[in-house]
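Quick one: examine this chain and its backbone structure tokens and tell me how the chain folds. Here goes:
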Amino acid sequence: MHGYRYIDGVATLRLDRQRCVGCGNCVVVCPHRIFFLADGQLDVNDPDLCMECGACARNCPVQALTVSPGVGCAVAILAAWVNRLLGRKVLSGCC
């Protein structure tokens, strides 16, 4: 998603490729669409787009994904996104 990055290089998202079974749950639930499956293997497009909401980790049946929810200020990012979509003034700052 263009324009919805957090801070480069600080995402807590981790993928254990050996555990991944390629179910695709994370691809479906990720609001920023950072995951993709290729030949049954999961990969990450851009980890810095992760807002660390934790949806991917919660929906992974084999715990191949870990993330520290809340670290990426998901609420602030989502609020800014909604406000932009609705044409409202976006306040700067976090949380």
Remarks:
- The chain has three helices and four strands.
